[in-house]
Design brief:
four-stranded antiparallel sheet, mainly beta, 217 residues
Length: 217
């Protein structure tokens, strides 16, 4: 039986790795340099996988003896689970508990292309959670009521987080402590996508629905 691939993440160009998440609850690691050969099947979700991402350890987490950073795959599913896998061995190394509904966002935070050792997760429970990436994965903070309804879009850049949700609100947060700085713009019927304008954390782009129309601000 074949299942639909729901999402796909590609690692940095030098590694030639990709990871997919599918309807059957599995993730698969692929070697793009070998005609897309499947390296491993990652089993652990009970339902469809909705989000996948690669994560790198910080310099302090170098522990593989080769001088390179450790690398993980992080997945979020309809079952509310967030699972962490060793990208080299395919072994599951952590379960990140806390979300109570579908997880649709797993985001490795970077700053100017540099990994900062933090992963963000968000989903249908309206919560945003921040995790310390490393051999001992731990939660740094949790915004259990970041939004009243599902988080539909999540971005992070330059020490800030931007979130949009089906409650029609867009909010700007401080990355380090998870403190809300302000609500952006007026409330819409729903928010589909948010993002920072290139080179600026003060200017944002929002795609929303208002009065039955799709609005780009």
């Amino acid at each position: 039986m074949r299942y639909l691939i729901v999402n796909l993440a590609i690692d940095d160009p030098t590694s030639r790795l990709a990871v997919s998440g599918s309807q059957d609850g599995t993730c698969r690691l692929w070697n793009l340099a070998a005609q897309g050969a499947c390296l491993a099947t990652l089993v652990g979700h009970e339902k469809e996988v909705r989000a996948v991402a690669f994560a790198l350890g910080t310099p302090a987490e170098k522990g593989n003896g080769s001088g390179g950073k450790d690398k993980w795959v992080v997945s979020g599913g309809v079952d509310g689970k967030v699972l962490v896998w060793d990208a080299r061995s395919g072994a599951r190394v952590a379960v990140l508990d806390g979300h109570t509904a579908l997880v649709r966002h797993v985001l490795a935070v970077t700053d100017g292309g540099r990994d900062v050792g933090m992963m963000l997760t968000a989903g249908a429970d309206g919560a945003i959670r921040a995790w310390q990436i490393g051999h001992q994965w731990r939660m740094r903070w949790a915004l259990t009521e970041a939004h009243e309804y599902a988080v539909t879009s999540l971005k992070a850049e330059g020490g800030y987080i931007l979130s949009g949700a089906s409650d029609g609100r867009v909010r700007l947060w401080e990355l380090e402590a998870g403190r809300m700085l302000k609500e952006v713009g007026e409330k819409a019927e729903a928010v589909w996508s948010v993002g920072f304008k290139e080179g600026s954390q003060k200017d944002v782009v929002v795609v929303s629905r208002q009065n039955g129309l799709t609005i780009l601000n």
